[in-house]
Design a protein that fits this description.
heterodimer; A: about 260 residues; alpha/beta; Rossmann fold; nine-stranded mixed beta sheet; about 30% strand; extended; B: about 400 residues; 11 helices; about 30% helix
Chain lengths: ~260, ~400
């Protein structure tokens, strides 16, 4: 395996209860996965943050064993995809978390970055294994399913929040680590893609569900109420237990819930 | 007038004498309740010109059906289309589709069975949905923001379509605006309805007063495109699929399990129950009573004070279905109940209720499953033999 260059992107997070600045959990998973991978194959790893180098959240990543964090100084509100893309042009493997904790957290950054760099992207990664001519990724799928895929490098890999990675916090590492600031080379104030204007409010009320308008008479509403009270599926009262078992089996088969 | 007269409830209808007095709530004519679904009109039926504007919904199917989240997304599109005039709802289903999705309000359905969510081919999927988008030129694109590939595909689409506005994790939507959580849910951000919307779960109601016509569109054009791109990209594609694996059901967290058998007070023999779970390769759950009795560990408890599960199949054995338990299984798609009492609340919730002795039915089910498995093995062996000949 040749020398691989890995970069992990970290963002500033917020504590879910107190709102204090701290590491973003998803990004720390990606960073720790990257650090473990780099250690196992002897690769070079860079921990990258775009934003303010004095952010109180950053030392948390040092405590989580990032020896050095490179900060690209970007003014708040500026488009970070372009400056990240120029910094990551020669990196073979870029690791990010699924979602940030502070700000828009749309989960779009890795996709925009991959589109900008024109390299493949694999999301929902649980584990990464280097193979010949690329990496093998174990992907998360719901309902207890997992999928293995391979991807050629360079690539962006988005780490899933359920990745089985243990975070180890050590204050000594926080003290010994360093944060280095770089000025952004390609800073554009205008975002390259869609401008969307968000109006931000405190989330006090529960979100309203979209419902279809119904103009029913009172009588119809009462009927609907009674009908919904009476709902329920098929009831099998008769037959021997063998026949009843067959009913269950044919129900499972009919809805493709079993494969035998 | 006469219709109205027929709909009136007979005030002298039969009654039941209960401890608390006369109960007249029971309606005499049961068939009337079954008529209700047929009464829904088809939305948009008379205007059928080809030049209609459309809202496109893109979603993967799961085993030939749409899951709740996907149905909510199609319904959301139908509700938005209903408020304006002359807009069709086009559902683009990736993976095979064996059910009719008219009830969610889809007017046209395009099925691309070769893009099952189990295969990983994002570059091909993106190329094909982009082709469909170019052909239809929809005014809005809605997708469910889930983990079976739509969230991923939607973000790829957003990244590839620079000129269009987009919002992800949309938790609130109406005809004018969309809202997403900001700063991990502490804030909420509103915006004008963007072009591409990735809808979070439970943002729309699937209960519609109308149905769509759900005409299946021919996919000849798209499938030829698929073959073309297939040939071109086979060598170029950076992704390779190594296959799917399913974790053994004992190791899966209960919240993530797809098939759960759950035991309540009616299960006397835990050993038979565990054999049934093994035979069906199902995860084991239990009601509070069974856990309190010490038959199962606390982490198996399903319900308000236990876990909330989202299995597609939930088999409740000897569980009466207290409200707290039903809360825990509210997201389960198919509920099968085995119970001695046919007036238990679980019977109202279940899609199939078997009334009888749990122990005997469990034994019979274990035998039936073993028989079915050996038969399907024999069939597979036969097919192999025929192929080799």
């Amino acid at each position: 395996m040749c020398m691989l260059s890995i970069a992990t992107l970290v963002s500033a997070g917020l504590h879910p209860v107190s709102g204090e600045p701290r590491h973003c959990r998803n990004d720390s998973l990606a960073m720790t996965l990257g650090l473990q991978l780099a250690e196992s194959i002897g690769a070079e790893i860079k921990v990258l943050h775009a934003g303010d180098e004095n952010n109180p959240a950053l030392p948390n990543y040092l405590a989580l064993n990032a020896k050095k964090i490179d900060v690209i100084s970007v003014a708040s509100g500026a488009n970070i995809v372009d400056s990240l893309a120029t910094n990551l042009a020669n990196t073979e493997l870029i690791l990010t978390g699924t979602r940030a904790e502070d700000g828009e957290d749309s989960g779009l950054l890795p996709y925009l970055l991959a589109a900008k760099l024109n390299i493949p992207l694999v999301a929902n990664a649980l584990a990464i294994k280097p193979i010949e001519n690329g990496i093998e990724i174990l992907q998360f799928l719901p309902k207890g399913k997992r999928r293995s895929v391979t991807v050629k490098l360079p690539a962006v890999v988005v780490v899933h929040p359920l990745a089985p990675i243990e975070l180890r916090f050590a204050f000594a590492q926080q003290v010994s680590g360093q944060i280095v600031a770089h000025t952004a080379q390609n800073q554009s104030k205008t975002s390259s893609s869609k401008q969307i204007q968000w109006q931000i409010q405190a989330a006090i009320n529960k979100p309203k569900k979209l419902k279809a308008q119904e103009n029913k008479s009172g009588h119809e509403r009462m009927l609907a109420y009674i009908a919904s009270e009476n709902k329920g599926g098929a009831v099998v009262n008769e037959g021997s237990s063998v026949e009843k078992a067959q009913v269950i089996l044919s129900y499972l088969r009919e809805h493709h819930l079993i494969n035998f | 007038m006469t219709d109205n007269h027929n709909n009136r409830i007979n005030p002298r209808r039969p009654f039941k004498g209960t401890a608390s007095g006369l109960n007249r709530i029971v309606l005499t004519t049961a068939p009337r309740l079954n008529e209700a679904p047929h009464a829904k009109p088809i939305r948009n039926s008379q205007k059928n010109n080809a030049e209609q504007a459309s809202i496109l919904v893109i979603s993967h199917s799961d085993r030939g059906m749409l899951d709740d989240h996907a149905r909510q997304t199609v319904s959301a599109a139908a509700i938005l289309a209903n408020e304006a005039t002359n807009i069709t709802v086009v559902a683009l289903i990736l993976g095979d589709l064996r059910e009719n999705i008219a009830s969610c309000g889809a007017d046209k359905v395009i099925v691309m069975p070769e893009f099952s969510f189990e295969k990983f081919q994002p570059d091909l999927e993106l190329a094909n949905i982009t082709a469909v988008i170019e052909r239809l030129n929809p005014i809005k694109i809605l997708m469910p923001d889930n983990f079976i590939g739509d969230g991923d595909l939607g973000r790829r689409l957003i990244a590839s379509q620079h000129t269009k506005t987009a919002a992800t994790h949309v938790i609130e939507i109406d005809s004018l605006h969309a809202a997403s959580p900001h700063a991990a849910g502490r804030k909420i951000a509103f915006t004008e309805l963007p072009h591409i919307i990735l809808l979070a779960a439970d943002a729309a109601d699937t209960n519609l007063p109308f149905i769509g016509s759900a005409t299946i569109q021919p996919t000849i054009q798209s499938s030829t495109q698929v073959e073309n791109t297939n040939n071109q990209q086979k060598s170029v594609s950076p992704y390779q699929n190594l296959g799917l694996k399913t974790i053994a059901s004992e190791q899966v967290a209960l919240e993530e399990a797809d098939l759960i058998v759950s035991a309540g007070n009616g299960v006397s023999n835990v050993e038979t129950f565990e054999r049934l779970a093994l035979a069906l390769d199902a995860a084991i759950g239990a009601s509070r009573v069974a856990v309190d009795d010490g038959k199962f560990s606390r982490d198996k408890q399903i319900g308000a004070s236990g876990k909330t599960v989202t299995a597609s199949t939930y088999i409740a054995i000897g569980i009466s279905g207290a409200v707290q338990h039903l809360q825990g299984i509210k997201d389960c798609r198919h509920v099968i109940a085995i119970n001695r009492d046919n007036s238990a609340p679980i019977v109202k919730r279940a899609d199939l209720s078997i009334i009888g002795d749990a122990e005997a039915i469990m034994q019979a089910l274990i035998n039936a499953v073993a028989e079915a498995k050996s038969l399907s093995l024999q069939e597979a062996a036969c097919a192999c033999y025929l192929l080799l000949r």
